[in-house]
Amino acid sequence: MLNTMADDLQILFLPFLSPGHIIPMVDLARLFAGRGIKATVVTTTGNVPLVKPTVDLANTDASLRHPIQLLPLRLPCSEAGIPEGYENLADFPESDPDDFFRFIAATERLEPSFSLVLKTHRPDCVVVDFFYPWATRVAQDASVPSLLFNGSNFFSSAVIKIVQDGELKQGDLETERLIEVPGIPQKIRLKLSNLPYNVLHPNQFSHRMAESLHRIHGTVVNSFYELERDYVDRAPNSRDVRFWFVGPVSLQNRDMDTKMVRGSGDAASGSADHFLSWLETKRPRSVLYVCFGSMAWFTATQLREIARGLEASDRPFIWVVRNAGETSEWLPEGFESRVVGGGKGMLVQGWAPQLLILNHEAVGGFVTHCGWNSCLEAIAAGVPVITWPLFAEQFLNEELLVNVHKMGISIGVLSSCDKAEERTVVNGEQLKAAVDELMGSGEEAEERRKRARELGQTARRAMEEGGSSHEAMTCLIDELIRLKTTVD
Ligand code: UDP
């Protein structure tokens, strides 16, 4: 009976406009659609090309009871004070907090059209991004239950809550300290200055986000229970809000075409064959994948050091570089002919099909900036990591991977910094040392690989029928059916 009623549910998904938020929210919409629910992704006209190929491919699945809909809204850029066509945070030339808040203010202009959408579509629930506190208010006004999607894990929000409730007010931000999560054995190593900008500098926006927690029905987390069990069962934030752990949502991208278009539309730099035929020439677990997500910027000096480190480590690699100028400005002389031309390394300027690469058996390590999607994709693929956090909650994600689950090595970045030119340069020797340790054959490296592999198996089991995330989805759908029945 419940299944029949799941068929009647209609859910709208409203992701924040950056790749790291749109990608998992589209995955989530597909997850719900796979359970028979009418799912509609609401985005802006400028972001349609990034999403439509994924939605179109998903809709070729004959087992879907309802095709996923795509609903574009107009973002009035110039009225909102941002350049026309800059409809994605990744379009901005630096990861600067000022740009972020300007963009956040611009996205608030979506409120009237989203409100109209709720009136005309009358969905049974909306899943809204953490960065859209206005959307939970609009939903409340329209008597539509809302769920929050915070794009990150439970662990980081638990630590942030503990810090906000006490420690942040005390003492020196630059001193590393051990934070205790009540009731759990491990302590969390943290420098308070490495917390996300909006936690360190609370402003109107942080208050609005906090207020929004009182309006939601609960939070959907792209993570799985087994990964965060200690925190879920005991952390203080688990008492305030309901959580459903339904990930890793990336795991439903099973076929090659879907992995190719995910996140970039048709804009991946190279075909699947281009990547696969290169990877197939390499030994299992010999390739290092290096990618810093969708928005990270590096100076020419830093890029040159990465190139030096990769060349010195003398292992095959795929290195994704975004937002960089001419290679002549940052690549060491002769790098392209010696390393790329020699088949040792692949340099991708633009967008790489990360899931396709990470899940190839030739890949044995991942240098990541610790954006949560990348962390979870590494976990799901069972690939150990070198962590190189830059900003936001990435230092907390590093802690989870390196010190809690022991599936990674820290490159040793000490301070969070939004601006590329203000960061301390990680030199080539540091990178080489970390690569040798990660990809080497010692006992510790083997143990790390084993832990990563086992965590990957647990992640995949969580998404299968009977697994924890699958069960959580069932509970959530039942809950939404109950809500609909009560309202009707
Ligand atoms: N991604 C990708 N190819 C790229 C760069 C990024 O597929 O060349 C995807 C990656 O798989 C992940 C998302 O973009 O799903 C980035 O999200 P994450 O949270 O890791 O970092 P952010 O970009 O938000 O900093």
The named CATH superfamily of the largest domain: Glycogen Phosphorylase B
Which architecture of the largest domain does the CATH hierarchy give at level 2? 3-Layer(aba) Sandwich
- What is the tally of beta strands? 15
How large a portion of the residues is in β-strands, by DSSP E?
5-15%
Q: What proportion of the residues is helical, as a percent range? A: 40-55%
Mean pLDDT: 91
The CATH class of the largest domain: Alpha Beta
CATH topology of the largest domain: Rossmann fold
Adjacency order of strands in the biggest sheet = 3-2-1-4-5-8-9
The N- to C-terminal Cα distance equals: 17 Å
Poorly predicted ranges: none
The small-molecule ligands in this entry are: uridine-5'-diphosphate
Profile the largest sheet.
Answer: 7 strands, parallel
* Structural class by sheet pairing and helices: alpha/beta
Radius of gyration: 22 Å
Shape category: globular
Number of helices: 21
Sum this structure up briefly.
This protein is of the alpha/beta class and 488 residues long.
Model description:
- The structure is a single chain.
- By secondary structure, this protein is of the alpha/beta class.
- 44% of the residues lie in helices and 14% in strands.
- The chain is built from 21 helices and 15 strands.
- The chain has helices at 2-6, 19-34, 48-58, 77-80, 97-107, 111-121, 133-141, 154-165, 197-200, 204-212, 225-234, 256-261, 272-279, 300-313, 335-340, 354-358, 372-381, 394-404, 428-439, 443-463, 468-487, and strands at residues 10-14, 38-44, 69-73, 125-129, 146-149, 176-180, 187-191, 218-221, 243-245, 287-291, 317-321, 345-349, 363-368, 385-387, 408-410.
- It has a seven-stranded parallel β-sheet with strand order 3-2-1-4-5-8-9, sandwiched between helices. The chain has a six-stranded parallel β-sheet with strand order 12-11-10-13-14-15, with helices on both faces. A two-stranded antiparallel sheet has the order 6-7.
- α2 (19-34) runs parallel beside α3 (48-58).
- Residues 19-20, 23, 263, 291, 293-295, 320, 351-352, 354, 371-374, 377 line the site of uridine-5'-diphosphate (UDP).
- InterPro entries: UDP_glucos_trans, UDP_glycos_trans_CS.
